[in-house]
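Thread: Newbie trying to understand structure tokens

Hi all, I'm a second-year student working on a class project, and my supervisor (Dr. K.) asked me to get a predicted structure for one chain before our next meeting. I've only ever worked with sequences, so writing a 3D structure as a token string is new to me. If someone could post the tokens and maybe explain what I'm looking at, I'd be very grateful. Here's the chain:
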Amino acid sequence: MAISSFHPPVRTLMGPGPSDVHPRILSALGRPTLGHLDPLFVGMMDETKELLKYAFQTRNELTLPISAPGSAGMEACFVNLVEPGDKVLVCVNGVFGNRMIENVTRCGATAVRVDFPWGSAVEPAAVEAALKEHGDVKVLAFVHAETSTGALSDAQALCGLAKKYKALSIVDAVTSMGGVPLLVDEWQADAVYSGSQKCLSCTPGLSPVTFSDAAVAAIKARQHPVQSWFLDMNLILGYWGEGGKRAYHHTAPVNALYGLHESLVMLQEEGLENAWQRHASMHNALAAGLDVLGIQFVVEEGQRLPQLNSVYIPDGVDDATTRQFLLAKYDLEIGAGLGDLAGKVWRIGLMGYSARMENITLLLKALAAAMTEQGYQCSGEQAVTAAEAALK
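---
Reply by user tm_fold:
Sure, no problem. This is what the structure looks like when written as tokens:
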């Protein structure tokens, strides 16, 4: 069988990630490939680190993009900071807290699990009670923006508790970076990881990470080798460290890093505060339109993540049928529920370049059409009118 070149259709991506990739970033990906030790590329690496420091709001020297997706950023934080026999307190309020538990276990450490209802934020009071009960916790780990539910937790309070009880903090910021305030230094977060494909609107496959001085000291004081050779920060620093001379560690994804660099330049141009406000404004517009359609949010308003909107599927409307309709008729993608919420919710992303009014208009009209075909009574035009009014 002869296989020809692959030419994907143009989709509008409004699921939990990846988000729409900005044309400027797509253009950057196609620039001439340089060697991963080329002096010009090394200079761009240094710029990328500085831009990431801005995005994280940190001065941490150990700030860089892992050459793999956000899941590898998560693993990098755990395998570098957690050793066999350590005790790690993990806050679980969705799927990605469970993945943290899995990482702790694979490190040979003990996971102390603190559960919260899916769709709610992590409660600092309950976390403090657990820290008091388990006095020898080395690491407190939590998800800042839980992508499976759309709940936003108080990272500042949780990082403060880690410091109070002399623990390190590991923070999942995969969905929060660039979409809501993320102030690594001010909050005294120790190890934070994110992803390129969410609010940065880059292609999937890179994971920005940052480690505080306290985290670096813990890495240097390890009694056991880091269990992952590829993710060992002691080795990666030889390639991503300061200065013109770099030691070969792995062949970096050169063109993907062009894209990340461009996305971070665009974030700098827009300004972090403006990016946060844009995501909040688009969320308010979407919420107004969904309310007209009779669609309710999973997360209460005060704990809601603007860039990831988890909503209940109305009675009489089928999950898979609706999503297939949107993809076939409108080239529009939204996300299904995960875990306990599978088949019960949709996850609607408003991340990065996807956080635009034209996308909201398309989504509201498409959802109304899909649900009307299933006998659900609603008006897409009225929903769009409400969304536009909220934006003004």
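A couple of things are worth pointing out once you decode it. The chain has a mean pLDDT of 97. The CA atoms of residues 336 and 342 lie 7 Å apart. Feel free to ask follow-ups in this thread.
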